[in-house]
Specification:
The chain is an alpha/beta fold. It has 15 helices and 22 strands. It has 2 domains: 265 residues, Aldehyde Dehydrogenase, Chain A, domain 1 (3-Layer(aba) Sandwich), CATH 3.40.605; 184 residues, Aldehyde Dehydrogenase, Chain A, domain 2. 39% of the residues lie in helices and 20% in strands. Helix 5 links the parallel strand 8 and strand 9. 51% of the residues are buried. It binds nicotinamide-adenine-dinucleotide. The site of nicotinamide-adenine-dinucleotide has 25 residues, from helix 7 and helix 8.
């Protein structure tokens, strides 16, 4: 598969920006420019919303089973072309083909799950207090939607929003990350090849403030579903929420992984390495705070550092992690580490730098980084870094671990490693987080299960699972009175 030299918007078919402007897409592995991408501006955004508005009524009236069948056909096409999809994801993100293929697999599973929901679009029927009357609920589309996503797992991010939005009868304008434009186009083309009526989905490329913000501000957009950072999420909540549009926010995390003194330390170290460093730490659910019981701290630290030291960085299947997505992100990660060490007395147990050897120097490679001696109120303990950086903390006992785990603005995921079912159960009960994992890593969501977080990690909605239908549809309550002689 060759990556296209030019990536256009999809607004009623492929087209350049009205201004003709483009931006350069760089390869994270070596910094070379691989494509010129259409750079959307407010006038392109308006055109995309025009298209979504025009297509809405007919799509909303299409039976949901038909909409689900279309998603199934598109998913089958994705299965046939999974290698091509993985190659695009790998090229855009710098992650290995193996990891990219795993992500395509996750998008496929999401497609089949959502397609099946077309035949399970359940409401409920109920009785009435009035004779000769009964009541029911049915789902209805929300309206034209703006779907705005991050780059970290690009094809899964598209699948998680586009499939349920289309199933529910919404038309949509997808604004992918500026770093992963072609992944979004690939899935968009498959949907049209599977029979999607023109206009139901548009893909608008460009910068957040230039192409994304005008979608959020457009009064005709009735739903904004956003995956990204907290500051942008807050602005979207204020702006779209200000006109009472529906807003779904999936934001960041500062996720704790607790290692108790009765844990299997090898398993815990393995889970911690995957949580902290897989996908180069670019996961909202990455394990960025490792809370370790004092009694096993040194033992766990040795096992963890040994594994960290053996990680290989590069774009190939034998490598454990790739580069981060762009130069700005790399500089932001290195800046956070530098501030932690220079201003907050944090020490570096491993990594802390960019890779400068000839094989990596041109790419955006950050060494897996392990920090120690961070105060709980230091910025490195509180703010998301979104890179391969984690901190080790000593905790006195179980209560201290829970207190520290909950001492965060975020509440996305959390994990505990223990052989005590009692500790695991108390952790489950007391942790303030949307997802928890017992004796596993901090990430690993499945398409049939809800995902999302508390506090600054979101605004209460869940993506994936049947819960995703609550984002993309609204309820309608229907009363049926069947006695013609009764008012
Ligand atoms: P970001 O907020 O900078 O950008 C995300 C998307 O929003 C991009 O498409 C960007 O172009 C767009 N955008 C930026 N400013 C905008 C604006 N003013 N109006 C409209 N759109 C705008 O985030 P990022 O750095 O690309 O992604 C990393 C963040 O995403 C992290 O915080 C991570 O935790 C979060 N994330 C969350 C989840 C989840 O499910 N909770 C999943 C993946 C990533």
């Amino acid at each position: 598969m060759t990556y296209p030299g030019e990536v256009l918007h999809w607004i009623g078919g492929e087209r350049p920006s009205l201004s003709g402007e483009t931006y350069d897409k760089k390869h994270p592995h070596d910094g070379t420019t691989i494509a010129r991408v259409a750079r959307g501006r407010p006038e392109d955004s308006r055109l995309a919303v025009d298209t979504a508005v025009a297509a809405f009524e007919a799509w909303a009236r299409t039976p949901v089973v038909t909409r689900g069948e279309l998603i199934r056909r598109a998913t089958m096409l994705l299965m046939e072309r999974r290698d091509a999809a993985a190659a695009i994801v790998s090229t855009e993100t710098g992650k290995s083909l193996k990891d990219a293929a795993g992500e395509v697999g996750a998008a496929i599973e999401m497609g089949f799950f959502v397609a099946g929901e077309g035949r399970r679009f359940y409401g409920r029927t109920s009785t009435s207090a009035v004779a000769n009357r009964w009541a029911m609920t049915i789902r209805q589309p929300v309206g034209p939607a703006a779907l705005i996503i991050a780059a970290n797992t690009p094809i899964a991010n598209v699948a998680w929003k586009v499939f349920p939005a289309l199933l529910c009868g919404d038309t949509a304008v997808l604004k992918p990350s500026e770093d992963t434009p072609e992944t979004a186009m690939f899935l968009c083309r498959l949907l049209y090849e599977a029979g999607l009526p023109e206009g139901v989905l548009s893909v608008l490329h460009g910068m957040g403030t230039e192409a994304g913000a005008p979608l959020v501000e457009d009064e005709r957009v009735r739903l904004v579903s956003f995956t990204g950072s907290v500051p942008v999420g807050r602005w979207i909540q204020r702006t779209a929420g200000g006109r009472l549009a529906k807003v779904c926010l999936e934001l960041g995390g500062k996720n704790p992984l607790v290692v108790c003194d009765d844990a299997d330390l090898d398993l815990a170290a393995e889970a911690a390495v995957l949580s902290a460093f897989s996908n180069a730490g670019q996961r909202c659910s990455s394990g960025s705070r490792l809370l370790i019981f004092d009694g096993v701290y040194d033992d766990f630290r040795n096992r963890f550092l040994e594994r960290t030291g053996s990680l290989r960085l590069g774009p190939d299947d034998e490598d454990d992690l790739g580069p981060v997505i762009n130069e700005r992100q790399m500089r932001s990660i290195l800046g956070a580490v530098e501030r932690a060490t220079q201003e907050d007395g944090v020490t570096v147990a491993f990594g802390g730098t960019r890779l400068t050897d000839p094989a990596h120097a041109r790419g955006y490679y950050v060494a897996p980084t392990v920090l120690e001696n961070a105060r709980a109120d230091a910025s490195i303990s509180r703010d998301e870094v979104f890179g391969p950086v984690t901190c080790l903390y000593r905790v006195r006992d179980f209560d201290h671990a829970i207190k520290m785990a909950n001492d965060t603005h975020f509440g996305l995921t959390a994990a505990i490693h223990t052989s005590s079912i009692h500790r695991a159960e108390v952790f489950r009960e007391r942790i303030r987080s949307g997802v928890i994992s017992i004796n596993g890593p901090t990430y690993g969501s499945e398409p049939h299960m809800p995902f999302g977080g508390l506090k600054d990690s979101g605004n209460g909605f869940r993506e994936a699972g049947t819960e995703a239908l609550d984002v993309y549809s609204d309820w309608k309550t229907v009363y049926v009175k069947h006695d013609p002689d009764q008012i």
